[in-house]
TrEMBL record:
Residues 1-22 form the signal peptide. It comes from the Bacteria. The lineage of its organism: Bacteria, Bacillati, Actinomycetota, Actinomycetes, Kitasatosporales. InterPro entries: Peptidase_S8_Ser-AS (IPR023828). Residues 51-77 are annotated as: Disordered. Residues 51-66 have a biased composition (Low complexity). The keyword Transferase does not apply. This is Lipoprotein. Keywords: Hydrolase, Protease, Serine protease, Signal. PROSITE patterns: PROKAR_LIPOPROTEIN, SUBTILASE_SER.
Amino acid sequence: MTSPLRLLAAGCAALVCAGAVAGCAGTDGLGAAEPAPAVSVQPRPKAVWHAWSGTSSASPGAAASTRQRPPEALKGLPKVGAKGLEALDVRAVLRADPRMRPLAGLATITRPGDAGLRPPRHVDLTGDGTPELLVAADTESGRTLLAVYTARAGKVYDVLFTGGRQVAVETLGHDLLLRSVCADGAQQAVRFHWDGERLSTVTDEKKYGSRLPYGVTELPTPAHGRDSAS
């Protein structure tokens, strides 16, 4: 099993996701008698943790996706009742998740720059009206791990596990948007969408020269550009 700290060692955002992207929409145009569809207002990104929010470009672009097995329910947790995930002990959820268990004992933090667990957030990312649980852990190295959990039939499932350097998290409608800084100086923006089983990647974009996420005053120096004698 991959250690969370090994995932954090990646130079760029090690964005681990799962699921499949739905098929592309049809390319046919409107028929002569078909009315034009109504114009809908596109959602704008909203910060999940405001203190850690970024100020980069509004939307990522390049499509990307991966497929994994359906998530399995976490073991050792009480049945989720009518109050949902908000009624569960967050640290108990982390201890039940093998990938987040080593971070369950970290102290709670309220500002960027400290190491520990950000306050948990509950956001509806599936569109069913019931909020998911989002937990982010910041490390002393400046990297972050993010886990998202949902409840189905009284059981808790981990539906996203991802990480990166100085991650800023936003919602875009019901989608989740993560921004981070790569070792080569680029800013990465990855958008996740609920596919019926988990949050899967729908877009993944790297940009150079963009504004930086929270707390970053300068870009990291690429490893190949450092003086080997220093």
